[in-house]
Amino acid sequence: MIASPPHQEPTPRFPSNDELDLWQWFLTDQPIPFFAQVSVYDPPFEGRTLGVTVFPPVGTEFSAAQTTQLADLHLPYLAGSGTTVGYTIHTPNGPGYSYGRPLFEVVVGGCQTPGHNVLPESQPYVRQYEHC
To answer: What is the predicted pLDDT for the residue at 42?
Structure first.
């Protein structure tokens, strides 16, 4: 019998200067109003060191065009960070974690977790930014 390594839950820590710069970037000069949740995983969670979740303003939803506009702006920036980032946009069809609905999700510099139901709109970004 081969023993597996113990599972270690991510623990909170203060963000690094680069991580704070990333968060600051999300707060400035954005074409569409939104809320962003930036999570730091230490140790990495499912191979990801950062998570970015984008939410529409309360009481609104992103259109398909707005979702694409945000992804076109955010994903190249995240790809330049040199870290593996889970990027999710809450859409009218999501969030899907608890309901099995599809997600607009891209793991920049990494791979999707098997079993995630990803929106077709995110597939071009998956092909461009995920590296498995």
So the answer is: 74
